[in-house]
């Protein structure tokens, strides 16, 4: 397309105008001025940066001056770069943007992939796919996410948004707000991500439709037994304008089916132990032994379906009514097959390899009569079903200088995760009445930093006459998160060209409800100790198990038995029936709900004036937030001092008491954004604000387990409904240079955040339970409440500190080059972050200080792209330094992630008749995930996911 560049067009583009037609359109004509004006009126203060009347008049006046920019041709990815530059240039906050041409022109695999190309934004790979993101070194707990200006419920069990839930094909634009303003929903200490679906009345065409289909292939799938190799992605969309362009409608559908594969070695955390040597000797000094390790083939499938619909009615220039809806469901079925070596400390070490910090990273470990050191074959089957639904109705009336906007909406997220585990062990005497687990096992291993360790067993684990299913466990986790909100915004535009250009104010009321349910079903015993329970090991056969050998990177590891656990259970008349039960009271205590009621109001003044003969615009304001957070749960009182409650097994207990605890608080959040125009091409921005992020939802639960020690009452839970939010004071300075021909930009930004405190688990001993409003049971022997004991809980610590850094970004479409070289372009960024915040961990053995989770000191994003005569291609590189985050093994463990570089490639060709072909390659270098505990000699996870290839076509009408 040919896009005419002038200052009026730039002002309109800053209001969020994309020349989007169909949700997937890969080549769009420029929208006419009338449609662009309509699109500008669509944007409310909740989602985009509107321009006041004075600014528009100034832009129009300057556009009439001698500055007449030549036309430049931008399509595909080049178009997305130019649009993003336009929006950033005219925004009233510090922000970065990806647009529809970016996401849909050459579709990214996920929104997370697209967002992670922005300065200061990194993604965390889960199962090889980008999912959660970090902004400026802060994790998803510090990020607020909205869709069409409405807060999004989360499927993660906390507040962290898993962006792979959102099909990239259905998102028209996404902005990352790095500095807040008073009209923006609170919650983003790191930043706010606002995603938008399409506005049909802003489309350039009367009617448009698009269909996209891509097949996929994973090149490591053949290394994993039972894993599929192929998948697909498809999408379809339609947009239309009716009734003389007063009624618009858009619908979209996207589906993804793809294999999930991974080869994995997973080391477990280290504990202080006495290391047993032969002849009853003990290794001198303080030593630390790993809980064990896993070696697994992981495979499975992922299927996601997404739906989007928007209807927009504008009977006049003064009134608009818009309703929109979004729904996505994501089903992930995965398995893990291999070995788990458990509790090395319970064996006898021969020739242990001892590191300087006392950690044992190698040796031969043998059974010594302690059955709690064992080698298990693992057969894990996990199923995750998540869904997100979001909908809302927005009405706007404009009369003279007044604009009144009302919005109601809801967002609901559900996550149903079932962790199914089963373990096979070798027995002697299978087929008799008294089979016994073997007692002659030994393991020889040596960790090799971030390389594959050496490992061997003294016996085989594939003999059906010896191997049996010793333990099966099914552990569902169910999360439900629901948010409902209503807001009213009023804006008054000034026309006298004074210091202020507009005044805004508004209020928002929201209710958010979160619930968490745990349950359990088990058969057998982890270590084959079945005599007490009477649940004997279950025999295997060729019909329900077969031999599998490792391939690829793990090909040196021994072969194992892959067991169909459900088939084995069925053959023995057993059907898993998970439920909450008093026998495992953690299922009751870790279940509960949280209710949040939030009332927020704000006042904001927009400014547009002259200082030193140059334009100064921006805003300042104040947001008031009144929060009420209360949680419901069960507290173990013991001694029959609770109320009668019956579990899912029909068992009644009098030891537990329902509780409701929480608090209310009010916050005042001032903010200022200033943009000084040094000249037509250079801007200097300054922003300052007080910001907040509420605690993770699962950390606000009120349930508590307990135990009584003598005359003291002790309680555990590691959650607290009394937690305060994360608070921070932040400052931002940004210099932005825009190329005279509007084809590029160069920016440098400095940010500083001082966070008051973080949330961590602590054991407080003694703890004043009564002062915290927690009832303590009565000691029957004394008739008085038990004395205060310890409380294992979540607290706001006093270990706040700064996070600071710089961001450098450069984007350029080289349209000054001759001939075909005009299609060449580059966009990239570098960010450096540091923090004085230090947390403590003992997962590597000795207690040590670690950095802020999510922070990578150095992050580089670069994309080289080229578009010419229908051909469009790009190669993207993302590098991030080591960072700290949680890895999921037997439980969640905080580890260091090694530096990683991810390379993606995409290419398409448009035949000019609506048909385009597309090729994509994700993770070209097969970049693994590698983690470690404290230092690289204590190996954590080594995981390879393979390269994912896509080939397909799209057709646009």
Describe this structure in words.
With 957 residues, the protein is mostly beta strands. 7% of the residues lie in helices and 56% in strands. The chain is built from eight helices and 57 strands. The strands form eleven sheets. It has a 22-stranded antiparallel beta barrel. The longest helix has 15 residues, at 76-90. It is globular, with a radius of gyration of 30 Å. Residues 1-73 have low confidence and may be disordered.
Radius of gyration: 30 Å
The tally of helices reads 8
Q: Which class of secondary structure composition applies to the elements?
A: mainly beta
Shape: globular
Mean pLDDT: 88
Approximately how much beta-strand content do the residues carry? over 45%
Helix content: under 10%
Taking the sheet with the most strands, its summary is: 22 strands, antiparallel, barrel
Spans where pLDDT lies below 50 across 5 or more residues? 1-73
**End-to-end Cα distance:** 16 Å
Count of strand segments = 57
Task: Work out the oligomeric state of the chains in this entry.
Answer: single chain
SSE topology:
Layout: E1 2-3, H1 7-14, H2 33-42, H3 53-63, E2 72-73, H4 76-90, E3 95-99, H5 100-105, H6 111-115, E4 121-126, E5 129-135, E6 143-147, E7 150-151, E8 173-177, E9 191-196, E10 207-218, E11 230-242, E12 247-267, E13 270-273, E14 276-277, E15 281-282, E16 287-290, E17 292-316, E18 319-342, E19 348-354, E20 360-366, E21 374-399, E22 402-428, E23 436-437, E24 442-448, E25 451-457, E26 467-493, E27 500-518, E28 521-524, E29 538-539, E30 545-548, E31 560-563, H7 565-571, H8 586-589, E32 592-611, E33 614-636, E34 643-646, E35 652-679, E36 682-693, E37 705-709, E38 712-716, E39 726-738, E40 744-755, E41 759-764, E42 778-779, E43 784-785, E44 787-796, E45 801-813, E46 824-835, E47 839-841, E48 848-850, E49 858-868, E50 871-880, E51 883-888, E52 892-897, E53 900-910, E54 915-922, E55 929-932, E56 939-944, E57 948-956
Parallel strand pairs: 6-9, 38-44
Antiparallel strand pairs: 1-2, 3-8, 4-5, 6-7, 8-9, 10-11, 10-57, 11-12, 12-17, 12-56, 13-16, 14-15, 17-18, 18-21, 19-20, 20-24, 21-22, 22-23, 22-26, 24-25, 26-27, 26-28, 26-29, 27-32, 30-31, 32-33, 33-35, 34-35, 35-36, 36-39, 37-38, 39-40, 40-45, 41-44, 42-43, 45-46, 46-49, 47-48, 49-50, 50-53, ...
Helix pairs in contact: 1-4
């Amino acid at each position: 397309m040919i896009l005419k560049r002038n200052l009026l067009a730039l002002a309109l583009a800053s209001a969020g105008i994309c020349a989007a037609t169909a949700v997937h359109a890969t080549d769009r004509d420029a929208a006419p001025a009338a449609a662009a004006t309509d699109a500008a009126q669509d944007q409310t203060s909740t989602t985009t940066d509107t321009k006041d009347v004075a600014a528009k008049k100034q832009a129009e006046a300057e556009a009439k001056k001698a500055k007449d920019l030549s036309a430049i041709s931008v399509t595909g990815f080049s178009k997305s770069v130019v649009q993003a530059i336009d929006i950033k240039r005219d925004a009233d906050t510090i922000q970065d943007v990806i647009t529809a041409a970016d996401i849909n022109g050459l579709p990214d695999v996920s929104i997370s992939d697209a967002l992670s190309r922005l300065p200061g934004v990194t993604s965390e790979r889960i199962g090889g796919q980008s999912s959660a993101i970090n902004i400026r070194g802060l994790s998803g707990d510090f990020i607020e996410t909205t869709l069409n200006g409405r807060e999004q419920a989360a499927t993660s069990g906390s507040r962290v948004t898993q962006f792979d839930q959102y099909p990239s094909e259905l998102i028209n634009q996404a902005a990352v707000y790095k500095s807040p303003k008073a009209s923006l929903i609170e919650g983003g200490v790191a930043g706010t991500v606002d995603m938008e679906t399409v506005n049909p009345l802003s489309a350039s065409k009367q009617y448009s439709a698009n269909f996209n289909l891509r097949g996929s292939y994973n090149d490591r799938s053949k290394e994993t037994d039972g894993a599929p190799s192929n998948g697909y992605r498809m999408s379809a969309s339609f947009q239309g304008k009716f009734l003389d362009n007063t009624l618009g409608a858009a619908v979209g559908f996207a589906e993804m089916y793809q294999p999930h594969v991974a080869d994995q070695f997973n080391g477990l955390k280290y504990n202080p132990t006495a290391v047993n040597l032969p002849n009853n000797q003990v290794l001198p000094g303080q030593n630390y032994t790993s809980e064990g390790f896993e070696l697994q083939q992981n495979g499975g499938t992922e299927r996601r379906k997404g739906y989007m619909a928007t209807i927009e009615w504008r009977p006049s220039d003064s009134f608009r009514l818009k309703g929109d809806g979004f729904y996505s469901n994501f089903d992930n079925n995965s398995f893990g097959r291999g070995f788990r070596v458990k509790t090395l400390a319970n064996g006898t070490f021969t020739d242990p390899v001892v590191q300087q910090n006392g950690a044992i990273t190698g040796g031969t470990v043998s059974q010594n009569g302690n059955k709690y050191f064992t080698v298990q074959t693992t057969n894990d089957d996990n199923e995750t079903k998540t869904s997100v639904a979001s909908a809302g109705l927005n009405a706007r009336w404009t009369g003279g200088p007044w604009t009144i906007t009302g919005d109601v909406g809801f967002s609901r997220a559900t996550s149903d995760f079932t962790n199914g585990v089963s373990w096979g062990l070798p027995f002697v005497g299978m087929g008799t009445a008294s089979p016994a687990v073997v007692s002659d096992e030994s393991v020889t291993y040596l960790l090799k930093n971030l390389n594959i360790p050496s490992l061997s067993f003294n016996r085989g684990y594939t003999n059906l006459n010896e191997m049996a299913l010793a333990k099966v466990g099914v552990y569902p986790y169910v999360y439900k998160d629901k948010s409902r909100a209503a807001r009213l915004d009023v804006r008054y535009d000034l026309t006298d060209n004074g210091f202020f250009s507009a005044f805004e104010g508004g209020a928002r009321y929201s209710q958010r409800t979160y619930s968490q349910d745990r349950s359990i079903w088990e058969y057998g015993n982890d270590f084959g100790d079945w005599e007490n329970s009477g649940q004997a090991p279950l025999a295997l056969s060729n019909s329900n198990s077969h031999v599998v050998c490792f391939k690829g990177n793990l090909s040196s590891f021994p072969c194992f038995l892959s067991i169909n656990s459900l088939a084995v259970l069925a053959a023995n008349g057993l059907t898993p029936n998970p439920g909450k039960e008093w026998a495992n009271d953690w299922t009751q205590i870790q279940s509960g709900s949280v209710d949040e009621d939030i009332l927020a109001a704000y006042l904001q003044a927009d400014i547009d004036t002259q200082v030193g003969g140059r334009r100064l615009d921006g805003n300042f304001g104040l947001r008031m937030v009144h929060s009420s957070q209360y949680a419901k749960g069960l507290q173990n009182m013991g001694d029959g001092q609770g109320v009668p409650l019956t579990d899912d097994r029909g068992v009644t207990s009098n030891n537990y008491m329902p509780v409701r605890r929480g608090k209310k608080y009010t916050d005042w959040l001032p903010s200022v954004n200033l943009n000084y125009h040094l000249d037509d091409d250079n801007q200097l921005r300054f922003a300052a604000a007080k910001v907040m992020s509420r605690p993770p939802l699962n950390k606000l639960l009120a349930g508590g387990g307990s135990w009584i020690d003598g005359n003291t009452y002790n309680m555990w839970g590691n959650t607290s409904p009394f937690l305060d939010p994360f608070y921070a004071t932040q400052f931002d300075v940004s210099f932005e240079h825009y190329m005279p021909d509007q084809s590029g930009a160069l920016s440098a930004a400095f940010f500083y955040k001082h966070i008051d405190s973080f949330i961590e688990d602590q054991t407080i001993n003694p703890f004043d339970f009564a002062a915290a409003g927690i009832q303590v049971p009565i000691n029957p022997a004394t008739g008085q409440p038990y004395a205060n004991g310890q409380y294992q809980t979540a607290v706001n610590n006093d270990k706040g500190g700064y996070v600071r850094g710089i961001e450098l970004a450069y984007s350029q479409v080289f349209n000054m080059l001759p001939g075909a070289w005009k299609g060449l372009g580059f966009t990239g960024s570098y960010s450096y972050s540091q923090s004085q915040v230090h947390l403590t961990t003992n997962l590597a053995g000795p207690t040590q200080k670690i950095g802020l989770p999510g922070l990578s000191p150095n992050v580089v994003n670069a994309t080289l792209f080229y578009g010419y005569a229908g051909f469009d291609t790009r190669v993207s590189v993302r590098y991030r330094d080591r960072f700290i985050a949680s890895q999921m093994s037997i439980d969640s463990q905080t580890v260091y992630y090694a530096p990683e570089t991810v390379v993606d490639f995409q290419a398409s060709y448009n035949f000019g008749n609506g048909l385009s072909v597309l090729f994509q390659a994700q993770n070209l270098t097969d970049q693994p995930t590698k983690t470690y505990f404290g230092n690289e000699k204590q190996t954590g996870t080594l995981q390879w996911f393979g390269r994912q290839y896509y080939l397909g076509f799209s057709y646009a009408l």
